[in-house]
Design a protein that fits this description.
The chain has 180 residues and is of the alpha/beta class. It has seven helices and seven strands; from the N terminus they run αααβαβαββαβαββ. β1, α4 and β2 form a beta-alpha-beta unit. It comes from Algoriphagus pacificus.
Length: 180
């Protein structure tokens, strides 16, 4: 699947992708700067999309670490399965609210998310955030890209501390929420 096909998928499903373009390298780097993947054993990505964030994670992933990528678009999943054939990367075509079904009682070091929480039904959004909080290892982080600072209040319902940063180097400019 080429970039034009991925862009078509992105624009055809704005309510589930929640983005006008794919995440810029600057935004991915900013998001990853809040993590230390050299010590991580299990990492989860919610909303794999075109694999921009996935690629950033894979570039820093230790060979003995595992990455689970949740994506509801089967087209994006097919493209990512080809792009990331590594044994320690698992592309999961399922909703992030089902994260607990795939963890096999393991705890997660980092959850990276680009889910469009503004467009997700409240009951599903709450389930995703609750499942994410429960899945995290003590000291684990939930790191979210979002386009509205107001979402910080949502994350405060589930995490003890929420800090934010902003980057102009993305279209549109974005916030990175770091939740613990």
């Amino acid at each position: 699947m080429g970039k034009s096909d991925l862009l078509f998928e992105l624009y055809s499903n704005l309510s589930t992708t929640g983005a006008l373009t794919f995440s810029s390298k600057s935004l991915v780097n900013k998001m990853l700067s809040y993590s230390d993947l050299s010590k991580a054993k299990l990492i989860v990505e919610l909303g794999g999309g075109d694999g921009s964030i996935t690629q950033g994670i894979v570039d820093k992933l230790k060979p003995d670490a595992e990455l689970l990528v949740f994506e509801i678009s089967s087209s994006f999943c097919e493209a990512m399965e080809k792009q990331f054939p590594q044994d320690n990367v698992r592309i999961i075509n399922d909703s992030a609210e089902n994260i607990h079904l795939y963890l096999e009682n393991k705890k997660v070091d980092y959850i990276f998310s680009s889910l469009p929480f503004s467009f997700i039904a409240p009951e599903i959004r709450d389930e995703i955030l609750n499942q994410s909080r429960v899945a995290l290892e003590n000291g684990g982080y939930f790191i979210q890209i979002c386009y509205s600072f107001l979402l910080k209040n949502l994350f405060k319902k589930y995490f003890k501390t929420v800090s934010s940063s902003f980057t102009l180097k993305n279209l549109p400019p974005a916030f990175v929420m770091v939740c613990k």
